Amino acid sequence: MPVPSNQNSPIILVLAQQSDLDNLVAIRIEAMRESLERVGRFDPVRARERFTDGFDAGNTRYIEVAGQRVGFIVVTHHHNELWLDHLYVKPSAQGSGVGSAVLAQIFKEADAAALPIKVGALKESASNRFYIRHGFQLIESAEFDNYYVRQCVPAER
């Protein structure tokens, strides 16, 4: 099913519910499958377990375009920073500006709170280029993941 153009449809973030867990896992698996297959690490059972172990509906928001749920984002507050734990957009909506629009909203929240944002990305994933393009800087590289930070931009007074 094609995703409506976001030119005329606002992209909104809607709080998820505990009962949404299975749907969120399905979106995660759909969004990550290609990248994980590329590195020989696709395992739907493991993908489910890794997500459900830390699931907190209070930090999870669906990404909606024209009433369609096209992905989700999880942002958690840790000490003096925000962690972008998950940002998944269904393949049918990737490349349409949805992820960029969501990041713009998260940047506003982070900047208002004067907090940097950290994120991890699977090394072989196109998300690395996405985060760098949006101002994240590489701070660490581990066996399978790269870690980035985006410093807050203080509001002008």
Describe this structure in words.
The chain has 157 residues and is α+β, with helices and mostly antiparallel strands. It has one domain: Gcn5-related N-acetyltransferase (GNAT) (Aminopeptidase, 3-Layer(aba) Sandwich). The chain is 32% helix and 31% strand. The chain has helices at 21-38, 44-53, 98-112, 127-133; strands spanning 11-15, 60-65, 68-78, 81-89, 117-122, 137-141, 145-150. Helix 1 (21-38) crosses helix 2 (44-53). Mean pLDDT is 88; it is low at 1-6.
Largest sheet: 7 strands, mixed
In CATH, the homologous superfamily goes by the name: Gcn5-related N-acetyltransferase (GNAT)
Along the chain, the helix and strand elements come as: EHHEEEHEHEE
Task: Decide which structural class fits the backbone.
Answer: alpha+beta
CATH architecture: 3-Layer(aba) Sandwich
Distance between the termini: 45 Å
The CATH topology name reads: Aminopeptidase
Give the count of structural domains. 1
Shape: globular
The CATH class: Alpha Beta
Enumerate how many helices there are, as a single number.
4
Average residue pLDDT = 88
Task: List the SSEs and their pairings.
Layout: E1 11-15, H1 21-38, H2 44-53, E2 60-65, E3 68-78, E4 81-89, H3 98-112, E5 117-122, H4 127-133, E6 137-141, E7 145-150
Parallel strand pairs: 4-5
Antiparallel strand pairs: 1-2, 2-3, 3-4, 5-7, 6-7
Helix pairs in contact: 1-2
